[in-house]
Design goal:
Length: 324
Amino acid sequence: MRADRVFAYGVTAGLIGDRILGDPRRGHPVAAFGRAAAAVERALWRDDRARGLLHTLVCAGGATAVGVLGARAVRSRPAAARVALTAAATWAVVGGTSLGREARAIGGALAVGDDEVARERLPHLCGRDPQALDGPAMARAVVESVAENTSDAVVGALVWGAVAGVPGLLAFRAVNTLDAMVGHKSPRYLRYGWASARLDDLAGWPGARLTALAAVVAGPDRRGAALAWRADAADHPSPNAGPVEASFAGALGVRLGGTLSYGGRIEHRAVLNGAAGRPVEVADIERAVRLSHRVTWLALAACVAARALVASGISHAKKREGRA
């Protein structure tokens, strides 16, 4: 079976598995990677970029090596084994179902006016200071997190899986996890996490643009999504969250961004879709989750099609060389 078909069957099965099973409560591979990365950090940490770069290379390189070894182990096996490995890797690295469940749980608490429960659950989804947020601010935080994590937890992995198979899937998830662990601008990680943050920006670039494009295509307000992406994405401090959050804001007809609180640090960000959007309401959480699901399947179709086109082009080129 051709590699592009193995990829198509494997990632589709992996996404279906995530949709049915979600993330396990114990023993998740990403959690195991996080513990290993934390152990490497304890051994290497110094307040300098060189140590942080070494930490990134060791952790991301190790995850990539696992993917390479796994792919080699099944290279000569029947196609079913290669499909199964791709499916398992996809299920391990994507988190769309858990993202939707957490968002809906917070939305459910907000809908019945239980802000305290919502505050307790919010850290499962994003790094905001929940005590500094009222109900509408928490709803906005959830919609922003759904948008950003659709790219980080799903689409970005699919893109790199299309590029590099199982090693690409694992490498992207490793880089994204490292950024979440050490890539933020705290005194401890400002230098040490620099390499992880920059690598995550590079790795996330294509997935973020595909996510934004899919939100334009699949959103309820296509024109609004396109206009917000073009007008406001560059005002976001993150080169990848900007297009994603702006396109989601325009697609849903809401305003995102503004004043945020992270770890006691206040950030004043530009408002996304400020001219045309309205304040986020609790009901918009469900709309954002549904849009996230549509974006996921549209991105899957795009990645499968792109890999098939590349494989077909390579096959035709080899045939022409053979005739020559």
